[in-house]
Design a protein that fits this description.
four-stranded antiparallel sheet; 2 helices; mainly beta; 27 strands
């Protein structure tokens, strides 16, 4: 297992050298903005379609055990991904390739094995279950996974080749970790806490390294999927969508929004005047962006350094080194460290096109 994971983590990363695609205008805001709108709109709505069973060859493990040898974390390759309708665009910031999906590309996730695409028949209004999955690998080839999910909120960590989600497993819910590079389930661990809020079929999750944060009632449950050990968090709020990036999360402070360590609760950076709805962490938790009016401030969480970038509509690159946006026939990328921006001319797909950025969750 260890050899296989090491080979996967270090062998998959390849440079993209591919022609430029059409692009589109930005309509969405950041990940946290969209997710919070989803909670409010859904309230306690009843769950929709049934969650499909774990795919053939998946192993449901009793007693909270795991087959995983543990994730090998590392810096992901530099990838920019977005989608319009049934077409996914994979870019390195200067060139890109377009990859057609069999259905609407409803949500995109960064992983170390490539860009994971959740599809459904109609994503025009965020869509709904059942959801299917395609893995777009470096170079632009797509492979369908034998995985179908219902109305749940899955999660990935861009440095790992896994998809985590919760499912009903007997009398309890289970946290499932699926290796998307092999299309096999690595772990299915019982969730002890109850889930009565939110209206999904199972509690939402957030994958960060070896930990799966599960949005159970009252307190968030934290499962080490390598060992099956389960604890409850005094840091990540319960009865809410967990949003942990690189072991960090945003939390309301006193007159500020704070970036805190998800394990210890230690405040790593306090951003005065910012609100959680206007802020967002990068995929690895190293940066925080605060959107206000026509501009945005990007903070280095470890140093407190700040750079300004124009506009309030940005997506992240997989390695958190850049933010990017597409406006008409122009893709703009800005360095999260220096704030320096560059424009790349791309063919426009026309006004009113709905662009979906990787890492932004779209729920029905």
């Amino acid at each position: 297992m260890t050899d296989r994971l090491a080979t996967l983590m270090h062998g998959e990363v390849e440079a993209l050298d591919i022609p430029a695609p059409p692009a589109t205008e930005i309509l969405g805001a950041g990940r946290r903005l969209h997710r919070r709108r989803v909670w409010t709109q859904r309230g306690a709505a009843a769950a929709g379609l049934a969650l499909a069973a774990v795919t053939a060859g998946a192993v449901a493990l009793s007693g909270g055990q795991s087959t995983g040898a543990g994730p090998a974390t590392g810096k992901p390759p530099h990838v920019i991904a977005y989608a319009v309708d049934d077409t996914v665009y994979i870019s390195d910031g200067t060139g890109a390739t377009a990859v057609r999906m069999p259905e609407v590309a409803q949500t995109l996730y960064y992983t170390s094995a490539g860009v994971l695409v959740r599809t459904n028949k109609d994503g025009s209004s965020d869509g709904g279950a059942p959801f299917h999955f395609e893995l777009v690998k470096p170079g632009g080839t797509a492979a369908k996974l034998a995985l179908t999910l219902g109305d749940v909120v899955p999660s990935t960590d861009p440095s790992l080749p896994y998809l985590a989600y919760a499912a009903k497993g007997g009398p309890l819910f289970q946290a499932v970790v699926h290796d998307i590079s092999t299309d096999r389930t690595e772990a299915a661990i019982d969730i002890a806490g109850k889930f009565t809020w939110g209206g999904w079929e199972a509690p939402p999750v957030s994958l960060s390294g070896a930990d799966v944060y599960v949005g159970t009632d009252d307190k968030t449950e934290v499962i080490d999927w390598q060992t099956g050990q389960t604890t409850t968090s005094d840091v990540v709020p319960g009865s809410a969508l967990p949003d942990v990036e690189g072991g960090r999360l945003l939390r309301a402070g006193t007159g500020s929004t704070d970036v805190v360590d998800a394990q210890s609760g230690r405040v790593l950076l306090a951003i005065p005047g910012a609100t959680e709805d206007g802020a967002d962490l990068s995929p690895d938790g190293r940066f925080a962006i605060v959107r206000a009016g026509d501009g945005s401030a990007i903070y280095n969480v470890d140093t407190g350094a700040k750079v300004q970038v124009p506009s309030s509509d940005w997506g992240w690159s997989s390695d958190s080194e850049d933010v990017f946006r597409v406006d008409g026939s122009t893709m703009t990328t800005c360095s999260t460290s220096t704030g320096q921006c560059q424009d790349t001319s791309v063919p426009s797909v026309g006004k009113g096109a709905f662009v979906r950025y990787a890492g932004v969750t779209f729920e029905s």
